[in-house]
Automatic annotation (TrEMBL):
Keywords: Cell membrane, Membrane, Transmembrane, Transmembrane helix. InterPro entries: ABC_transp_permease. It comes from the Bacteria. This is ABC transporter permease. GO terms for molecular function: transmembrane transporter activity. The lineage of its organism: Bacteria, Pseudomonadati, Pseudomonadota, Betaproteobacteria, Burkholderiales. It is a multi-pass membrane protein.
């Protein structure tokens, strides 16, 4: 029973950065911008967050620093694809490569460095409840903030004027422009917000989840977050469910190794990515259903003067 509680706790912790990054990419895609640079933005957030935590000793400042660094990179990406009309796919891949290389360069001095002792975030009284306490009430506040963010974002897109406008920009930017909305600025704002959330996810990885810096420590989570938006059919609540699913698969490999299951470690390490591919294959079997949920102008450039 205790092992099950610990597995649930590990699943929530592992799924949180995926959920945060997935929400950021959802905002991008709802506005019609496809950002393939998530991996690089996560790495920028991770190295920036670790540097801030190492020098300032504050996890909160580290999360904000990671958000700022990734948002800055996202603004550059947004300027290229929204104003210069660069190809979104090629530019996103370039941003991903740049983030990986730049984070490795900046992070050289932080390899092997350690942060201070972790803070106990257990919620009084609730953390002592058998089974439920260890599983649900001993997490970093970002785990609970992520849950709130999912609900808030679902409400924002379905119930607020601003959310409906962003959705309109992603569905038909020409119509939104004809109604007087500044499509390019709205898209840039969405890209910056999405990048900031990717930065928070990266900083969470390097300062909370595994408080250290290692080159390439994001390990493909940016690509999994991209797949999550498709898996979730662009709905926030489903992104959360998918993030916990992939987080559970990630933790399952360690759990099985701890139980002494004789499976090659390389195969276990493949599990999250195999699960991602299987999910995408299953979803792709129904392209009509996929197109019905996908923003109609996703990945398509917009020319105001056209």
């Amino acid at each position: 029973m205790n092992e099950t509680a610990l597995l649930i706790a590990a699943m929530l912790a592992a799924g949180t950065p995926l959920a945060i990054a997935g929400l950021g990419l959802l905002i991008n895609e709802k506005a019609g911008v496809l950002n393939l640079g998530a991996e690089g933005m996560l790495l920028m957030g991770a190295v920036s967050g670790f540097a801030v935590a190492f020098h300032a000793g504050s996890t909160t400042l580290a999360l904000l620093g990671g958000a700022a660094a990734a948002a800055l990179l996202a603004v550059v990406f947004g300027w290229l694809v929204i104003w210069i009309n660069a190809n979104q796919y090629a530019t996103g891949l370039a941003v991903s490569l740049f983030g990986g290389g730049f984070s490795a360069f900046v992070g050289v001095r932080y390899v092997g460095q350690k942060l201070g002792e972790p803070v106990n975030h257990a919620i009084p009284f609730l953390a002592d409840i058998p089974f439920i306490g260890p599983a649900l009430f001993r997490h970093h506040p970002m785990v609970y903030l992520t849950l709130l963010a999912v609900v808030a974002l679902a409400w924002f897109f379905d119930r607020t004027r601003a959310g409906l406008v962003i959705r309109a920009v992603g569905e038909s930017p020409e119509s939104a422009h004809a109604l007087g909305y500044k499509v390019r600025w709205l898209r840039l704002g969405a890209v910056a917000c999405g990048g900031a959330l990717c930065g928070v996810a990266g900083a969470y990885l390097s300062t909370v989840y595994t408080p250290l810096w290692v080159e390439g420590m994001v390990a493909g989570r940016g690509w999994i977050a991209l797949a999550l938006t498709v898996f979730a059919t662009w709905r926030p609540l489903r992104i959360l469910a998918g993030a916990y699913l992939f987080g559970g698969v990630t933790m399952l490999q360690l759990h099985l190794q701890g139980l002494g299951v004789q499976i090659p470690s390389q195969f276990l390490s493949m599990l999250p990515y195999v699960a991602t591919i299987l999910v995408l294959v299953l979803i792709s079997r129904n392209p009509l259903w996929l197109r019905a949920n996908m923003p109609a102008s996703l990945g398509k450039p917009f020319f105001p003067g056209g």
